[in-house]
Amino acid sequence: VTSLSEKYEFGEVGRSLYNFIWDEFCDWYIEMSKIPMNQEDEIQKNVTRSVLSYTLDRIMRLLHPFMPFVTEHIWQNIPHDGTSIVTSQWPTVDQSLMFEDSKVVMEQLVEIIKSVRQSRLEVNTPLSKPIPIKIQVKDQNVQALLIRNQDYLERFCNPSTLEISTNIEIPEKAMTSVVTAGEVILPLEGLIDM
């Protein structure tokens, strides 16, 4: 956003902000944050709240040149430092807040969730209907990673059963999708007439 603003490419700034706010922050982070916010771990809840608040603050600062009155009003109603968003510092990249491992995990989860949702659409099976889901992973590290984040897969894929393994028997009638983590398998028996 900063480099585009410096080049006076304000249309691209708007597009970048829009894509980040809707496609990343709202569609994924806010939705995924509901899982730790509904669990018992108070430390995780506080971390999640802090990240949401920090990100919303930075979004308001980036949007402020385009929507000054709205962003000032919102900013005044969230935790902040200073008296006005006008005098707050322009956001910069803080390398200490870059967690490459978390980014990779998130990308893999999102890819799997999108794959399952697309496969469901192709066989006309609504997300509200639980279905068996199998994920054939490349190795045990990926398996451990997905098992640690199984709550997200269960919430966003609605499996009746979820199997994550390096050695899965693929049913004869199944829909498969190749993803970075391995392969997503939806057994089709009972889902469509064959």
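^ that was protein a. below is b, sequence first then the tokens
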Amino acid sequence: MKAVVQRCRSASVTVDGQVISSIQRGLMVLVGIGTNDTIHESQWLVNKLLNLRFFPEGDNDEWGWKKSIMDIGGEILSVSQFTLMAITKKGSKPDFHGAMAASKSKAMYDTFLTDLRTKYQHEKIKDGQFGAMMDVQLINDGPATIILDSIDAPDPVIPKPYLTPEQKRLRKEQLAKEEAEKKAAAHDRKPLSTTEAAPTTDESLAQKFKESMMETY
């Protein structure tokens, strides 16, 4: 996801000659959603927007990066903007294949807005009209504009699978056996003789562990 974030004194969105959204002091945000974006990128962008220190210390100060939008109690006007995902490496015509299709991006954009409202104040998050031709006006304060790109987001943390006590025991025995085989192989330059013997009727520890994991899921 990409976002063009503009610090503003006021901003508004007009559709068909009617103002549908407006804010006073706060952030005007243009949001683009790419084909590979997920909820992880959306959550990263929400947290970045709400915590970005983009405002000066005092209300009358002109410059400084001391306070976030939440610190000043400002408003956010968000407008979906697929053209941010344009590819311009070749030729003179922008290529928009990098943008997520509207049929999918609408749901993700709605989730993005819901997350903003949940983590901040619902009434302070305003929106344009998804997919419409809009006239967007603002008074840029500064001007101060920052581009955020979720390519800078850290990789998502993948939780470790839950193991039952029996699975933990099997896993521990399996690791111990593998470690013993490595030591024997290093010493004898060959696998343990037990691994060369014909398989017994009992299943291997690895197979037992694998089956127990399949039962869990």
